[in-house]
Amino acid sequence: MDRDWVNRSACRGLDPTIFYPATEEEAEEAKAVCAVCPVQEDCLEHAIGNREHNGVWGGATERERQRIIRRRRRLRAMGAPTDGVGAEVLGVGAR
Hints:
Elements: H1 28-35, H2 40-49, H3 62-77, H4 87-90
């Protein structure tokens, strides 16, 4: 997967510890950075595609990414398109 998007990320140069909160409730600071990031979708897809188990990626916590993965699986099983599934959960995609 092409990772050129990393160089355009809003988190580049920030302390990475904010993206690895101890609890889901402590993820708001990281999510705020992701909310204004121009490559949020690329980051989210990277995390889902590479099964990142820890941290906030693309504005989604591990629990939220697992929900996105389950939803995509259900849609594929029904023969429905999965494009954008994940982006709408996080309120991104209409950039």
